[in-house]
Write a structure and sequence with these properties.
With 250 residues, this protein is mainly α. The protein folds into two domains: 168 residues; 34 residues. The chain is built from eight helices and no strands.
Length: 250
């Protein structure tokens, strides 16, 4: 593979990696919120977040390997771990080395999430977010075309997207939702005697009327009338037995 080919692969993989890292951060914020953009399920958003993170690591590996293999870059074999022997632009490359370490820390914390305590996972994940500004500085300061207009436009767009998601994440309006939770809070039940049914209660039909407006006898009124008739009959019978017979009068 020629030096020019290695240079093209190294530049293109770094450019794509910045876009993938931006998508990873934005999708991570959306997944944490529990929202469903474009009607996607919450589990789908979480899978997209993990997939873009793994793709970012893959393109990062291509970026590092091609630049180490390129003799023009002059990078040492361990320059992606330890910021030494950094070739042509040591300052910008040092930013890239630290960004790589922080990115790997974030990926490992995500893979080991179930094995880590919740507080430790959040601490590592928030610490790993520092890789993004370092990666942007690395791309502008080290890239061969880092100051070209299309590179600057892409970098600014990525920074704006990540900044907007971070501001939303830290704002008081950011309220994580559980999967399947209602979009709006349920209304409290109406007080007794208000005439309005509470949540989950059927709407009552006025006595003497059906939904179609026909006059009918309410079941409650019919039952009450029958009970009153039985009571009157029992009272009349008791009074009849208490009257003296004609023989007793004689």
């Amino acid at each position: 593979m020629s030096t020019e080919t290695l240079w093209v692969y190294g530049r293109a993989s770094g450019f794509v990696d910045l876009v993938l890292l931006t998508l990873t951060l934005v999708l991570g914020t959306v997944a944490r919120s529990g929202r469903r953009p474009l009607g996607l399920a919450a589990t789908t958003v979480s899978r997209l977040h993990r997939t873009t993170a793994l793709l970012a690591v893959l393109f990062l590996a291509v970026h590092v390997i091609t630049l180490i293999a390129d003799p023009f870059a002059g990078l040492g074999v361990w320059s992606w771990i330890v910021p030494v022997d950094l070739g042509l632009r040591p300052v910008g490359t040092a930013f890239g080395t630290v960004a790589t370490q922080l990115l790997l820390l974030g990926v490992l914390s995500g893979l080991l999430r179930r094995a880590l305590p919740a507080r430790g996972f959040r601490l590592l994940h928030w610490l790993a977010l520092a890789f993004f500004p370092l990666a942007v500085i690395h791309g502008i300061a080290t890239g061969t075309e880092g100051t070209a207009w299309y590179s600057l436009v892409t970098s600014v767009a990525c920074v704006l997207a990540v900044t907007a998601s971070l501001i939303w994440r830290l704002s008081p309006r950011f309220e994580p939702r559980r999967p399947g939770a209602p979009r709006f809070p349920s209304l409290p039940p109406e007080p007794p005697g208000s005439g309005r049914p509470g949540p989950g209660q059927p709407h009552a039909v006025p006595a003497g009327r059906t939904a179609a407006g026909r006059t009918v006898t309410s079941r409650t009124a019919t039952t009450a009338g029958r009970a009153a008739g039985r009571t009157a009959t029992a009272t009349a019978r008791a009074a009849h037995h208490d009257l003296p017979s004609s023989k007793e009068h004689a």
